[in-house]
Amino acid sequence: MKTIIVVGNGMVGYKFCEKITAKEESKNFKIIVFGEEPRPAYDRVHLSEFFENQDAKALEMAPAEWYSENNIDLIVGERVSDINRTDKKIITAKHREFSYDYLVLATGSSAFVPPIKGVEKEGVFVYRTIEDLEGMLAYAAKIKEKNPNAKAAVLGGGLLGLEAGKAVMDMGLEPHIVEFAPKLMPRQLDSRSSQVLQLKLESIGLNIHLSKATNQILGDKAITGMEFGEDDVLDVEMLVVSAGIRPRDELGKYSGLEMGNRGGIVVDNKMQTSDPNIYAIGEIALYNQMIYGLVAPGYDMAGVAVDQILGYTETLMPDEIDMSTKLKLIGVDVASFGEPFMPASKGHSIIFENKTQHLYKRINVSLDGKKLLGGILVGDATDYSMLHQIFLNGMAIPEDPAQLILPAIEGGASFGDVMDLPDEAQICSCENVTKGQICGTIESGESNDLADVVSCTKAGTGCGGCKPMVKDLTEATLKSLGIEVKDSICEHFDFNRQDLYKIIQVKEYKTFNDVLDNHGNGGHGCELCKPVVASLMASINADTANKEYAIQDSNDRYLANIQRNGTYSVVPRVPGGEITPDKLIALGEIAKKYDLYTKVTGGVRIDLFGATLNQLPLIWKELIAHGFESGHAYGKSLRTVKTCVGSTWCRYGMAESVSFGIELENRYRGIRAPHKIKGGVSGCIRECAEARGKDFGLIAVEGGWNLYLGGNGGATPRHAELFAEQIDNETVIKYIDRYLMLYMRTAKPLQRTAAWQERLEGGLDYLKEVIIEDKLGIAEDLDHEMQTLVNKFECEWTQAINNPETMKRFNHFVNSEEDDDNLVFVPLREQKMPEKWV
Amino acid sequence: MINIVSDKYKTVKPEDVKVWFKAASTDLFPIDGGACVKYKDLQIAVFNFTRLNKWYACQNLSPEKQEMVLSRGMIGDHKGIPMVACPLHKKTFSLENGENLNGDLDAIATYPVKVENGFVCIGFSE
After folding, report:
1. Per the domain annotation, does A521 fall within a domain?
2. How confident is the model at residue A806 (pLDDT cuts 50, 70, 90)?
3. Contacting B residues, span 51-80, partner chain A, CB-CB under 8 Å
């Protein structure tokens, strides 16, 4: 068995491993990988994301187990220090020797630190590894403690430098970018686009200093500033050097491989160095007199080396390497492709610039106007994928090429449908996936949705820039095959929620097993269908969550909201937000007794956190004794009806909003629906109850109530729509009854009224026809069904504590009275909170 | 290859059982649901998979965020594999071998279970 040793476990080194293990022949090789860093390869391109979540694992290319699962020996934290080419051995810094048949060098690059006086001072960092970032974070925290307005500079206004600038900004330091050249990103952008980018970055708080040569770093031990020239000093307490990269080519130098004049190990189009048993890939490889600092060419090089070693000698590196890039810098799109700069003798440029919106688009076309040669986009790169494809595939362009970058004119011919691309068009350049491969995996039936396509082809798993295109292609291909996206609730049923509603109602099923055995696909249910059926049973039969508690969703099962450490929170109902002092005192005393963290909720109720499973029934016994009942904060059901104080007290009030709010809350309490429901009642148009942000909202006006339906906060806030004007209390109730019942009958699982109403064919007018004019002749059924639910209401906590059978569930252990001993709380502003998640 | 997140919890194969711990009466476990058993300093989630007429046991510790909650999860099957869904974020784990079915979390430890004279017994190697 032959041995391949890979030196370097960065993105490209990892890609080599991934590509080789994907091939059958790799079984004939022993693969050993050395990594100098203490962790397996991670995604350096998205390094600045580490500041947002500080989750090194999330950046991993593959977990450590991946290597052993694929029979690769991964040795991290051990640097390879020399190569003995005569005996075909490598020597590590720990003086261990390993023999190889093939050696793949993928040591990448290190940050280039210019020889500036004082650069060794404390507080000067490079931006390259997770360890660098951790060092920066710790230092930033230290200087911020002394000076909350501390400034930090980044030396270098290139791509990485701007990324580092974002990192510095995220750390809460005042960011300054110092660039030697007279423009930002000098290698990718022309002067005008660079100015647009600069304006945009300055508008979000980055300070930019151009044409600055740093003479020295000031400070005694730690950095206090940068000196550019006489009297030209920038006071900073931290500096991140991002002035370029240097290939880590020492191994090549020591072992006498052919090197470039300015570094880099010379390779041919097989990725072979001057020693045929040694390959070099990624940022140490000098190919065509160039070092390629981008991920995509590095990945291609890895693929070439794999094929060459396995004997597919016809795979060669192309002569021309596409250096197109698209990225989001601090939220600003920047892209360049092909030839971004173009002398007038070679082609014409078409430029669109709008400094007020920080937009710049430039395309370069051939002199005959037929071919796209390259371009630059700043501020909005939505056109990038398409332009890049047209460029790569040499596709024909419109007679007026300006159409490619100008905003589409309504009614005009649309240019650039993804499906028009040729099959060989490369969609994902990181993973080298073509349009034909993406469409093919769907057409062959191997992939049925976007997730399948991504896992089958790996498209979109590199820089992610092609994701929108992959999505469009997937959808268009599915559509062309006539595949409808199924909306059945899960693998156990071929029905959607509305179908199941009818089935359960007509057949009068009473248990989950009845429904599953008679209408399921032969399985045993899952976390998706069980709660849906539980909710339907409740909506149809007025069941509480105590019946069949093992099919209830996490919160319903224990009639409380599970919080992040597995303890629960308790919210008793306070209808309309009206509460007596005695009840308020009772809540406080109970919270104190059980040491519960107490907070007023977003729905203006009182939430008591940190109750263990064993404590829940004890707490509820006391709450019920003081006249409280379940608030259903844990259920997909009515939460609160928020009220303003109304004409009871308010000098502007037109109606008694509190009284009506309480009436509505008590009417709909406990009713299970596809999702939670909130209401609001305001006593005048000042709208203090924020009723228009609720599923149903009322605003008192002269002559009655205005009723608004289908609003919500949440991820997609939406105002409720005006449904009826100047109606009386009785009519309000009639309309809300019908509206909610219709929603409960027809919505999808976990669909709020807002989303349901928005997708309802016919929209609000249709709702008016059904609810007010009874176009479908079902109004009486809806009224009746709702009234039955209202009449059957029972507080499920009272029910639970009075039934020994349902009480069994409230023990952490089935064989012990003890509580969970895994819980750890830490103090927080005179209360407590769970220990932070690791 | 399967890795277990916490050292305390290691899968016990039927042939390695040295102790059959008599945990609790079968009627204390809900139909098609679970409850938690304390054994020494371990917390074991035990499931009464009535539809399959089988019992399963695994660690109660969710490997995702290290909380003792798996016994409170819903059970069922994922493409035929009996599974439990963690109540916190609905990560699903095979009850047969502990594998995470909808992600790449570490596998959870599983334990043999038998019912004797109306009592649920869990197999441990020590």
Report:
1. no
2. confident
3. 51-52, 61, 65-69, 72-80
